[in-house]
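Ops channel
N.P.: pipeline sanity check, posting one input/output pair.
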């Protein structure tokens, strides 16, 4: 598979970038999984997780979401997990605590005391202290499972936001991740349930109004041609005014626009007020009802970002990506990143179901129509508060 190689130091030694080795960075489609690839410097990342779930208390029948929010906060506090309610914050939320909020895109059922909720993590380091963030996710999901009934609907989600540990992106890093997002879209589609391949909340970057119908090589050329983060963001998240999303938001005919509701959300790269600051989010994963599921998605995104953004990275757009090879590379990178408990990532890859589009259809295209409920929720979400951006700005002291 055309992918990435790194210059591997001995275990425990610092990785040093060597420009003379970057031309070895492409691996053959038929490379053996036992052939140790060469490695070059890969950046570390900070990440933030948004868990969108349907939650009901096991002991109390909350008639309003406020009561449920209070109980979730109380139980997390008792478990030693720092948190706060978004509804009580008039200023930016904390970058060091979990944020608890209601979620507008997830339908609630008050008559059954179930509400669409969102829990937003602090920003954590991916490979510097991996055991720390894995323990944190296990603690949160264990506490929720102990005191609440957790279920998932088609609108539930696991969003993983990432940004380089330095706090800002280099344009080449962002372009590298953008290419991987397009190149591996069909592979990643195989890892999610069918309803997350047609979701109005996670539209196809590969088949958006800007890239649709183009060969991969030309898509790469268009990415390389972007001289600004704003230009790259617009191309990756360009939404057609005539699409279901555009119609729901009342876009004028022909007035295509930037929208965050894509599998990979690059709109955050220009949301923090300066080029290179902000996060990129993978929005396609379904709701995570267990810690293992959430951990698997974080590992996948973190490892793919490291592979995509490492110095000298290259993909061959003329070769077809292979899920098996991609999975092997992700697991290999997890090992080199010092990830404990790689089982969740391996299990996620093993359960993949290849996408087989119906005759005459293009895999990954947006749904032909959306429901009245989705139409309304798109309007509600359009100006929704961006807790991740607030946490990011607080983390970097940009406010």
């Amino acid at each position: 598979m055309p992918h990435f190689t790194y210059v591997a130091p001995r275990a425990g030694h610092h990785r040093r970038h060597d420009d003379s080795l970057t031309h070895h960075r492409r691996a053959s489609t038929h490379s053996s999984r036992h052939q140790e690839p060469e490695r070059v410097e890969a950046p570390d990342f900070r990440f933030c997780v948004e868990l969108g779930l349907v939650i009901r208390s096991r002991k109390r029948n909350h008639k309003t979401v406020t009561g449920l929010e209070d109980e979730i906060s109380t139980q997390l506090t008792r478990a030693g997990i720092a948190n706060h309610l978004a509804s009580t914050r008039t200023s930016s939320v904390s970058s060091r605590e979990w944020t608890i909020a209601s979620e507008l895109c997830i339908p609630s059922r008050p008559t059954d005391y179930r509400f669409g909720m969102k829990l937003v993590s602090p920003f954590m380091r991916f490979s510097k202290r991996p055991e720390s963030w894995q323990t944190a996710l296990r603690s949160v999901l264990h506490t929720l499972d102990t005191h609440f009934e957790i279920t998932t609907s088609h609108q539930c989600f696991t969003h993983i936001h990432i940004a380089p540990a330095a706090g800002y992106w280099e344009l080449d890093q962002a372009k590298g991740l953008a290419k991987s997002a397009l190149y591996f879209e069909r592979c990643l589609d195989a890892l999610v349930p069918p309803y997350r391949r047609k979701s109005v909340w996670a539209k196809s970057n590969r088949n958006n109004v800007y890239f649709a119908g183009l060969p991969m090589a030309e898509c790469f050329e268009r990415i390389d041609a972007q001289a600004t983060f704003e230009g790259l963001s617009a191309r990756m998240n360009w939404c057609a005014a005539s699409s279901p999303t555009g119609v729901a938001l009342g876009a004028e005919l022909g007035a295509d626009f930037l929208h965050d509701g894509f599998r990979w959300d690059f709109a955050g790269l220009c949301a923090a007020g300066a080029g290179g600051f902000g996060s990129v989010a993978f929005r396609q994963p379904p709701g995570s009802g267990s810690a293992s599921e959430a951990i698997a998605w974080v590992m996948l995104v973190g490892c793919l970002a490291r592979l995509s953004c490492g110095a000298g990275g290259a993909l061959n757009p003329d070769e077809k990506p292979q899920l098996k090879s991609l999975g092997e590379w992700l697991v290999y990178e997890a090992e080199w990143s010092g990830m404990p408990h790689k089982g969740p990532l391996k299990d996620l890859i093993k359960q993949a179901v290849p996408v087989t589009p119906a005759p005459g259809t293009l895999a990954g295209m947006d749904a032909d129509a959306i429901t009245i409920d989705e139409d309304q929720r798109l309007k509600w979400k359009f100006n929704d508060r961006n807790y991740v951006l607030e946490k990011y700005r607080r983390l970097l002291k940009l406010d």
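N.P.: looks fine end to end. The chain has a mean pLDDT of 87.
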